[in-house]
Design a protein that fits this description.
The chain is mainly β.
């Protein structure tokens, strides 16, 4: 066997010979070679994924992403099989005013009617209410007021699980698409407009199942937020327990992350939820139930606004009265946190069901809904009372900027977003 040093020297000599031959060829026919190289470069560029999957920058949780395609001269992400670009935006929710100290925003809220979402008739149809309104900031954000539109829209769908469906628990803008999440079927719906914005309807984009995804049960979605380019969606952050308190499964401790192109990844968040629970004094057998969780790009932190906080073991008969006024900021590594007490009169029946940061406040002002389920244990519709209240507060100091205001319909609203629901749809052909 030849020594390694000999093989290395031989390879070096061969490489030098090839290089010298290339130089000699170029010196003889350099023009032809340059033409050939130019042709190769042009072909490579024209056939590259970067050109055909042209990177685009989208609003509100956008960023540069790939996988777009052209429809009617517009480039967009083919998200969940969509044939159109998104056309809603937070920026579009801002209403121009003549006053420099006043700002107005369109918003929309969506209901989770539970069993009441089923429509009467032969076919299985289900519905949710979409309530538009206007939130007004006065004196440069020192106080807020609210008004509700009479243009309440009915969202109807047929997707269901065991005769339940359209129990929408969150409303979120992602890649300029207005998305809603069914906490019964695991569906992710896109809300679309037609008739120049006069009518809104829903289209299922994804069906996501519990836990790691290897189940046949739809995920109980309760919150959603945009972090960087991705959409994070999560459940209530509590184990599913049997009547004796033992744990049946931890599927609701998982979250899912959806990329701009629609890829879905399931992530076990048990440690993250446990950290939050501990910081709020609700370590096992205590618990928290989460329906309002946001990532703040400005603060670079997670904001948890629990619907329920309990230091005791779960008991459905007393759970209705575990509402709280606590807000928890958590860093991205889930190693540091700070608790903010929202300076409000605490009614334990009221619990946070959704929240949105007020635009232009660097995520220091939050607009939230607090829903009520009273005497609803056991499913007796005749005695069950539901209602929802809106509130605005400072996320850093806890100062209340608008006291609770009751929404017109006596139902549970569990999704909220700053959006102009009257936005005209973009032509797709």
């Amino acid at each position: 066997m030849l020594p390694h040093s000999y093989n290395k020297s031989k390879r070096k000599q061969m490489n030098q010979n090839i290089f010298l031959r290339a130089i000699l060829y170029l010196s003889r026919d350099g023009r032809s070679m340059m033409v050939l190289l130019g042709f190769i470069v042009v072909v490579t560029v024209l056939s590259s994924n970067r050109l055909h999957d042209d990177a685009v920058t989208l609003g509100h949780g956008g960023g540069s992403v790939r996988g777009s395609r052209m429809v009617s001269g517009r480039r967009f992400i083919n998200f969940g099989g969509a044939v159109h670009a998104g056309y809603f935006s937070v920026e579009g929710s801002i209403i121009p005013t003549s006053s420099s100290s006043m700002r107005k925003f369109n918003f929309a809220a969506v209901t989770d009617l539970d069993q009441l979402s089923r429509m009467q008739g032969d076919k299985l149809k289900f519905y949710s209410w979409l309530q538009p309104g206007i939130l007004t900031s006065h004196d440069n954000g020192k106080s807020y007021s609210i008004e509700f539109s009479e243009d309440v829209r009915k969202l109807v769908g047929g997707h269901n699980e065991a005769g339940r469906g359209m129990e929408l628990s969150e409303l979120t803008l992602y890649q300029n698409r207005l998305l809603a999440f069914d906490d019964r079927t695991g569906d992710v719906f896109e809300l679309l407009n037609k008739e120049s914005g006069a009518t809104t309807f829903v289209v299922p984009r994804f069906v996501i199942t519990e836990g790691n995804g290897e189940t046949d049960k739809g995920m109980k979605w309760e919150w959603a937020t945009v972090k960087g380019d991705d959409l994070y969606i999560g459940s209530m952050g509590k184990e599913y327990t049997r009547e004796d308190g033992s744990i049946a499964n931890t599927n609701n401790l998982w979250i899912a992350v959806i990329s701009p192109r629609g890829e879905i990844v399931h992530i076990d968040w048990e440690q993250q939820y446990s950290f939050v629970r501990k910081q709020l004094g609700a370590s096992p057998p205590g618990y928290c139930i989460h329906e309002a969780v946001l990532w703040s790009e400005h603060q670079q932190k997670w904001m948890f606004l629990p619907r329920r906080i309990s230091s005791d073991a779960y008991d459905e008969n007393v759970d209705e009265r575990k509402g709280s006024n606590k807000l928890l900021w958590v860093d991205d590594t889930f190693s540091k946190s700070s608790v903010v007490d929202i300076k409000m009169t605490v009614d334990p029946l009221h619990g946070f069901s959704t929240v949105a940061f007020v635009p232009g406040t660097e995520d220091k002002h939050a607009f939230a809904l607090r829903s009520v389920e009273e005497d609803c244990v056991g499913g007796e519709e005749s005695v069950c009372k539901q209602r929802t209240y809106a509130i605005v507060f400072n996320t850093i100091t806890g100062e209340v900027l608008m006291d609770e205001v009751k929404l017109p319909k006596e139902v549970k609203f569990e999704g909220l977003e700053f959006v102009n629901i009257l936005t005209s749809e973009v032509a797709t052909s």
